Amino acid sequence: MELRILGSFGGDSPSCRMTSFLIGGTVAVDAGAITRALTIEEQRAIRHVVITHTHMDHTSSLPFLIENIFGSATEPVSIYCTRSVLGAVRRHLFNNDTWPDFSRIPNHLYPSVRFEVIEPGVPFVIEGVPGGNLEVTAIMVNHIVPTCGLLLRQGPSSVIFTSDTGPTEHIWEVANATEDLAAVITECSFPNRLQAVADVSLHLTPQTLATELAKLTRDCAVYLYHFKPPYVDDLRRELAATDLPHPVEELVQDRTYSF
Ligand SMILES: [Zn+2]
Ligand SMILES: [Zn+2]
Questions:
Q1: pLDDT top residue among 101 and 31
Q2: What number of CA atoms fall less than 13 Å from residue 171's CA on the CB side?
Q3: C or N terminus of the chain, fewer CB within 10 Å?
Q4: What's residue 195's pLDDT?
Q5: How far is ligand 2, taken at its centre, from the CA of residue 159, in Å?
Q6: How far is the CA of 110 from the centre of ligand 2 (A)?
Q7: What is the model's pLDDT at position 103?
Q8: How far is the CA of 241 from the centre of ligand 2 (A)?
Q9: Which ligand has the nearest atom to the CA of 187?
Q10: Angle 17-22-28 (CA atoms, 0-180°, nearest 5)?
Q11: From ligand 2's centre to the CA of 253, what distance in Å?
Q12: Which range (44-53, 82-91, 130-139, 232-241) has the least confidence?
């Protein structure tokens, strides 16, 4: 699996783009900064977007992506999300108020986007992805709005992206049961001194990350994303000083990983 990191942060600044990944050049996972990271030509290659939850650091470039690629393909772009996320995406992003409803543009028979509802725990396959069919399974996690992590499988290996989450259980059970698991991408958002903020917003700090990683019994690479831009230096320092149950690496923006 070829995974390009378009944005790896939980907020926006000139050096920190918001969460979005690209698989095989054609499938986007979250849409925090797609249009800031890719050329128009590269944006036109995207045919599928999987959205984990409605927060703006995961969705804000979606309206601009759809506008940029408007008219460049005969088939609509597919947007995959759970039913509750779909309701909010339609209500807040494509509502003919903050942005046009591209599921009815140019008209409802030939829309620019097509929404696909995904069911947690039920794998679905995206065909025609360079590198082979991509199997995606949504797994609900514990965030302040309905949020799913993703089990992504292509060819010989799987990757789990937890998306944003506080302490949770099921996705770690899935990780432990996934024999071809190559990597887990999970979050760390705030330094330990902001534990109360992390707790109410359902995010992790280095100390709660340590508790979460103790649930992972499988030997696989662990990458961290979603540092909040004001605390990047604090988090790097704290993580280096924390005795974590698994070695971790920061997920590097603009890098392409092969799994
Ligand atoms: Zn986020
Ligand atoms: Zn979030």
A1: 31
A2: 29
A3: C
A4: 98
A5: 20
A6: 32
A7: 85
A8: 26
A9: 1
A10: 95
A11: 18
A12: 82-91
Residue 144 CA, ligand 2 centroid: distance in Å: 7
**Matching residue, tokens 């070695």:** 247
Phi-psi region of 236 (alpha: psi -120 to 50; beta: other; left: phi over 0): alpha
Query: What is the CA(120)–ligand 2 centre distance, in A?
Result: 18
Please compute the mean of the pLDDT values over residues 96-119 and round it to a whole number: 87
Residue 117 CA, ligand 1 centroid: distance in Å: 21
Global pTM value = 0.97
Contact yes or no for 25/130 (Cβ under 8 A): yes
The CA-CA-CA angle for residues 34, 143, 63, to 5°, reads 25
Q: Give first-to-last CA distance, the chain, whole Å.
A: 5
Ligand nearest to the CA of residue 228, numbered in listed order: 1
Q: What is the pLDDT of residue 109?
A: 73
Ligand 2 center from residue 247 Cα (angstroms): 24
What is the 57 CA–ligand 2 centroid distance (Å)? 7
Backbone phi, then psi, for 184, in 5-degree steps?
-120, 130
Cα 165 to ligand 2 centre (Å): 8
**Which ligand lies nearest the alpha carbon of 31?**
1
Residue 78 confidence (pLDDT): 96
